[in-house]
Specification:
The complex is a heterodimer of chains A (213) and B (185). Chain A is α+β, with helices and mostly antiparallel strands and 213 residues long. Chain A folds into two domains: 43 residues, no CATH class; 159 residues, Sandwich (Jelly Rolls). Chain A is 16% helix and 38% strand. In chain A, strands 3, 5, 7, 10, 12 and 13 form a six-stranded antiparallel beta sheet that branches. Chain B is mainly beta and 185 residues long. Chain B contains one helix and eleven strands, in the order H-E-E-E-E-E-E-E-E-E-E-E. The chains are: A alpha+beta (213), B mainly beta (185). Chains A and B meet through helix 1, strand 5, strand 7, strand 10 and strand 13 of A and helix 1, strand 7, strand 8, strand 9 and strand 11 of B.
């Protein structure tokens, strides 16, 4: 039996010209393997690793003029097609490629509002052993100015980050949310309307994009 | 007759007699496998998605109340999520999944003072994402909001707009609302 170069499809030799059954078995198995490979890539496109975390209680007493890590407990709200274990802390799994991260929080003053003072949300993506004091591999912000409107000031940030598990020794990256404000007349609370939310979804890597297109 | 493990391509057992029917069965089996792959590809290339706009006139707003935006143009819908004739303020999810939802709007009516604008994504009347901005120039401006939302079949997605200040009536004269499934569940 001979085989084609690229897809390894069988062809009969002179010596096995009558071996039709063997030929068809080899051909069926090669086609099955090739279709399985392509089907898995396509299934991966429509079933992307995706997760959403939400805080279970409000963060209270956030002081002014310092970056404040939100330590109110996050809980895993939903996760699909996640490779390996996932817990209640927002994270990126060790899967190579581009990931989109979205974060939303609502800050409400516990007392007096200093109109037009700064409100900032910062998202840090840490290497596996860095959180929360190491050097983040990605950092992105949203910023607005206090409106004194009923309900609070809502911040929303997003970023697309590249995850390289080789440099991370195939361990999970950590995502942390920080708050900053200069409302000196009172501390701020993060509201549960809505809860502080972090959501991530896998966008893909170059080989996957090529296969689908 | 034996078959392959994943796509069930049938082939003759070793040593069996081969006739024209065996080749026909083989060809039909390969075709069936390709049809299966076509369905998977079609699903991947047509993930449920929809886009609607406020294209003419303006959507009314109520001062101090987060108001569902009324849309008047269906731009795209491949999963029967939009029926503007029946409900012009929503999309209804047909296929369970996690959706990337985006909403942007431009306020454009009258007011005396403009304190803040907020764009919101609401699922079954529950606020999921909101972005609020203050007005330092006392002029109407644009705001956008986006986020990942877990949806079941029948869930209702709405885009809402909230403005605070005095005077009015202010309106929303341009708006776009999109949802695209990023993962099926």
């Amino acid at each position: 039996m001979q085989f084609t170069e690229r897809y390894n499809l069988p062809c009969l030799d002179d010596d096995d010209y009558a071996a039709y059954a063997l030929y068809m078995q080899c051909m069926a198995q090669r086609i099955d393997a090739e279709l399985t490979s392509r089907g898995d890539l396509l299934e991966g496109y429509s079933h992307r690793p995706t997760a959403i975390w939400k805080t279970t209680s409000a963060q209270t007493g956030i002081p002014d003029n310092a970056w404040w890590l939100i330590t109110s407990p996050f809980a895993l709200y939903a996760a699909y097609n996640w490779p390996g274990a996932i817990d209640n802390a927002a994270s990126l799994p060790p899967v190579r490629g581009w990931w989109q991260i979205v974060a939303n929080t609502n800050l409400v003053a516990s007392g007096a509002v200093n109109f037009d003072t700064q409100r900032s949300l910062r998202i840090d993506v840490y290497p596996p052993i860095g959180s929360p004091v190491g050097t983040p591999v990605e950092q992105f912000y949203d910023e607005t100015w206090a409106t004194n409107a009923t309900g609070g000031d809502y911040l929303l940030a997003t970023a697309i980050v590249y995850n390289d598990p080789i440099t991370d020794w195939y361990r999970t990256r950590t995502i942390d949310c920080f708050i900053y404000h200069n409302n000196t007349s009172s501390t701020l609370n993060s509201s549960q309307t809505p809860p502080t939310t972090v959501a991530v979804t896998y966008l893909g890597d170059t080989p996957e994009i090529q296969a689908v297109v | 007759m034996p078959s392959t493990p994943n796509y069930g391509i049938v082939y003759p057992a070793s040593g069996s007699q081969i006739d024209c029917d065996a080749f026909a069965d083989f060809a039909q089996s390969v075709q069936s496998a390709l049809n299966t792959l076509d369905a998977i590809q079609d699903q991947a290339q047509n993930m449920p998605s929809a886009s609607i706009r406020r294209n003419s006139g303006s959507s009314p707003l109520t001062l101090g109340v987060s108001t569902p935006v009324q849309f008047d143009q269906e731009v795209w819908d491949n999963d029967n999520m939009v029926d503007l004739a029946a409900n012009n303020d929503r999309m209804t999810i047909r296929t369970p999944g996690v959706y990337m939802v985006t909403f942007n709007g431009q306020q454009g009516g009258t007011f005396t003072t403009l304190q803040s604008q907020a764009a919101s994504i609401v699922v079954n009347s529950t606020l999921w994402y909101r972005k609020r901005q203050g007005s330092t120039t006392n002029r109407n401006f644009a705001t956008q909001v986006f986020g990942l939302v877990e949806c079941a079949a029948g869930d209702i997605l709405q885009a809402q707009w909230l403005w605070t200040g005095t005077g009015g009536p202010d309106t929303l004269f341009i708006a776009g609302f999109q949802a695209r499934c990023v993962t099926l569940i």
